[in-house]
């Protein structure tokens, strides 16, 4: 049989955050390359922060990403607090968790509805998607708005938060504003449940590849803000240990994203990994949704990432109510602190998965070193391994794009 | 009526894409106004770009030029476009990625990538340094209501207009406490409003994401903040 070389090239994968294309190379049916090709530039965030005041870091790193700015902002704050030995108050932590739930709802609904759903109907345009099923469109947009409302009330603004600071909040939400969120949570929970059932009835491509999951795990709750890092078989690492094991590498000199592997293995982070590892900590309605879901755990089929995200949206709405009921907001200024030399790491779970911020501070309160490891950088090797296996069967460009979009990659985060 | 629809292109260069999400935040209002245009491209909601046409009536461009390819894309876009709008602080001012211009950009690069990396490290400039821009919607992120207002004006063939008053003007109308008087480094007096003083609402001093207002008293601002602090804050969004 003659050697047949095929190159698959997609110049622009739309409907993802940021800009990337795809290159796949096959020879005689064997795949020897399947990778994303970034088509935007580097902003060198970790480099520009060096020599700048620590207070600027949360403000600047929020600008890494337009879809998940709040998680960058809060992870930055948490890392700096760790470096300075600041222990945030219970109220501050509750409000930060609330903001992250808003962030998760907003980001997941954006991905599920605007970025990924069209693929399940072979629709290229969201305006058409909205027209053919206005009720689901309204539910999705309302849910996304609800996430944004939480962010606007708690973090001051849904894109690039204003009220969050090292040590606490510059401005606190009022009891009435929080009450409003709790009231709206009730009707949004119903909408989320309906939307889950709609998604659950879609046809999900049957494709899977065994892999390793990693997620934040908190003893008390389904963690987004705090916890240790969990891998399958109940292997648990302190964030510092995991961070030391997770090796960043630049595969090719022109590659903008530094990928990450643990012990030379690719791994999956994000909603599907979290649901696989932490499903026992889900709230009741989210657990019920999971029991109705058209997949079984453990689930290695990334297309179900959409359903996992929707389960998390349900969980997040329930959690919102729980948090608001758990405390009465009282006037409290950010904790005053003294600058000191130190280093701090923080691990959180962003909508797309584990996120690390690490800083070293000098005696003047200037940043000496910064390292940010994003979810997309961590799952990119896993995505490319999936693509290699996926291409063992004949696939159209639309199939390839659908798989990439199911991962919900954020290129602007991954490059930063 | 239908054939008179203007063509609209929404695109981004290197950025956080936040301006595009600000557009999506308009929700149904955005899709309603969209029906007044023929959308050529908006990568978050359209799988395929239709920008091969030679006739683009309106282009909203977010982000900065960070690669040679982006520079070429921008030049081509400018040639085809009647009315090109710089959307957001990246395209208007350069934004945070411009901070590297104020230091040694090679050294800054080496903190992120190894010596053998082959990645472009261009000086960051606003779009206006490359091409003529016909209008600016400022902000990081831009105020979504201003975006909607501009789209509305363009849909009915009006020359777009946004007011240009300092942030202090809106801050005082809203009755927020003055952070400058509290000794905080707030650029409110010299920065263009339209943001509804949203940072001040959150007790975050203005760091200047919307650029200078008309006739700003920079000397006075520098005198109040001190030269070092004044320069530091101006650098954040590329105002220096």
Radius of gyration of chain B: 19 Å
The portion of residues assigned to helices of chain B is 25-40%
Characterize the main sheet of chain A: 3 strands, antiparallel
Give the C-alpha Rg of chain A.
21 Å
The percentage of residues in β strands of chain B lies in 5-15%
Instruction: Kindly state the number of beta strands of chain A.
Output: 15
Oligomer: heterodimer
Return the string of H and E elements of chain A.
EEEHHHHHHEEHEEEEHEEEHHHEEEHHH
Q: Overall mean pLDDT score of chain A?
A: 96
Question: How would you describe this protein?
Answer:
The complex is a heterodimer of chains A (416) and B (240). With 416 residues, chain A is an alpha+beta fold. In chain A, 44% of the residues lie in helices and 18% in strands. Chain A is built from 14 helices and 15 strands. In chain A, helix 4 runs antiparallel to helix 6. The mean pLDDT of chain B is 96. At the A-B interface, helix 1, helix 2, helix 4, helix 5 and helix 6 of A face helix 1, helix 2, helix 5 and helix 8 of B.
Topology of helices and strands:
The complex is a heterodimer of chains A (416) and B (240).
Chain A: E1 5-10, E2 20-27, E3 30-38, H1 45-48, H2 56-61, H3 69-84, H4 90-116, H5 126-132, H6 134-155, E4 164-165, E5 168-169, H7 175-200, E6 212-213, E7 215-217, E8 228-231, E9 235-237, H8 239-245, E10 246-249, E11 259-262, E12 267-268, H9 271-278, H10 284-292, H11 305-326, E13 342-350, E14 353-361, E15 367-373, H12 375-390, H13 397-406, H14 411-415
Parallel strand pairs in A: 6-12
Antiparallel strand pairs in A: 1-2, 2-3, 4-5, 7-8, 8-9, 10-11, 13-14, 14-15
Helix pairs in contact in A: 3-4, 4-6, 4-11, 5-6, 6-7, 7-11, 9-11, 10-11
Chain B: E1 6-12, H1 18-24, H2 28-34, E2 37-42, E3 56-62, H3 68-80, E4 81-87, H4 88-93, H5 105-110, E5 135-137, H6 144-155, H7 167-174, H8 198-201, H9 218-225, H10 227-236
Helix pairs in contact in B: 9-10
């Amino acid at each position: 049989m003659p050697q047949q070389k095929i190159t698959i090239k997609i110049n622009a994968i739309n409907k993802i955050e940021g800009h990337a294309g795809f290159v796949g190379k096959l020879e005689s049916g064997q795949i020897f390359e399947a990778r994303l090709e970034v088509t935007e530039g580097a902003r060198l965030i970790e480099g520009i922060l060096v020599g700048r005041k620590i207070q600027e870091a949360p403000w600047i790193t929020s600008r890494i990403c337009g879809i998940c700015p709040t998680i960058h902002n809060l992870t930055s704050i948490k890392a700096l607090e760790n470096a300075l030995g600041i222990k945030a108050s219970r109220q501050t932590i509750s409000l930060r968790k609330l903001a992250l739930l808003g962030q998760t709802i907003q980001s997941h609904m954006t991905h599920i509805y605007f970025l990924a759903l069209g693929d399940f109907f072979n629709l290229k345009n969201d305006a058409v998607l909205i027209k053919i099923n206005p009720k689901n469109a309204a539910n999705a947009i309302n849910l996304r708005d609800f996430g944004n409302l939480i962010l606007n009330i708690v973090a001051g603004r849904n894109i690039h938060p204003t009220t969050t600071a090292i040590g606490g909040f510059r401005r606190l939400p009022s009891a009435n504003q929080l009450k409003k969120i709790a009231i709206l949570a009730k009707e949004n929970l119903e909408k989320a449940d309906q939307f889950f059932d709609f998604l659950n009835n879609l046809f999900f491509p049957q494709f899977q590849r065994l892999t390793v999951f990693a997620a934040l795990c908190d003893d008390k709750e389904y963690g987004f803000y705090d916890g240790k890092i969990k891998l399958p078989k109940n292997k648990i690492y302190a964030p510092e240990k995991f961070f030391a094991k997770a090796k960043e590498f630049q595969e090719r000199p022109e590659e903008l994203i530094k990928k990450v592997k643990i012990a030379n293995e690719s791994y999956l982070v994000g909603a599907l990994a979290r649901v696989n590892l932490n499903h026992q900590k889900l709230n009741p309605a989210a657990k019920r949704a999971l029991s109705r879901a058209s997949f079984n755990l453990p689930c290695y089929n990334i297309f179900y990432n959409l359903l996992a995200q929707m389960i998390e949206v349900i969980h997040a709405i329930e959690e919102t109510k729980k948090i608001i009921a758990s405390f009465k907001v009282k006037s409290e200024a950010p904790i005053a602190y003294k600058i000191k030399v130190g280093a701090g790491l923080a691990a959180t779970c962003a909508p797309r998965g584990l996120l690390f911020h690490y800083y070293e501070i000098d005696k003047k309160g200037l940043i000496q070193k910064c390292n940010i490891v994003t979810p997309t950088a961590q799952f990119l090797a896993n995505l490319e391994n999936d693509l290699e296996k996926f291409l063992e069967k004949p696939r159209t460009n639309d199939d390839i794009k659908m798989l990439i979009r199911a991962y919900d990659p954020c290129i602007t985060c991954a490059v930063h | 009526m239908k054939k008179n629809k203007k063509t609209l292109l929404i695109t981004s260069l290197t950025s956080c894409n936040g301006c595009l999400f600000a557009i999506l935040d308009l929700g149904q209002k955005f899709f309603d106004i969209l029906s007044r245009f023929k959308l050529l491209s908006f990568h978050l909601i359209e799988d395929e770009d239709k920008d091969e046409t030679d006739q683009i009536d309106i282009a909203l461009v977010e982000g900065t030029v960070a690669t040679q390819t982006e520079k070429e894309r921008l030049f081509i876009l400018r040639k085809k476009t009647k009315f090109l709008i710089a959307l957001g602080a990246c395209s208007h001012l350069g934004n945070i990625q411009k901070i590297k211009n104020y230091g040694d950009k090679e050294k800054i690069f080496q903190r992120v990538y190894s010596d053998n990396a082959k990645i472009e490290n261009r000086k960051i400039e606003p779009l206006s340094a490359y091409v003529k821009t016909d209008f600016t919607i400022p902000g990081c992120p831009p105020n979504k209501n201003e975006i909607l207002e501009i789209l509305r004006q363009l849909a009915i063939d009006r020359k777009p207009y946004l007011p240009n008053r300092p942030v202090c003007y809106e801050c005082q109308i809203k009755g927020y406490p003055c952070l400058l008087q509290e000794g905080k480094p707030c650029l409110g007096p010299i920065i263009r409003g339209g943001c509804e003083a949203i940072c001040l609402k959150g007790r975050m001093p203005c760091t200047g994401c919307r650029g200078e207002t008309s006739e700003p008293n920079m000397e006075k601002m520098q005198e109040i903040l001190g030269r070092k602090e004044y320069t530091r804050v101006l650098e954040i969004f590329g105002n220096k």
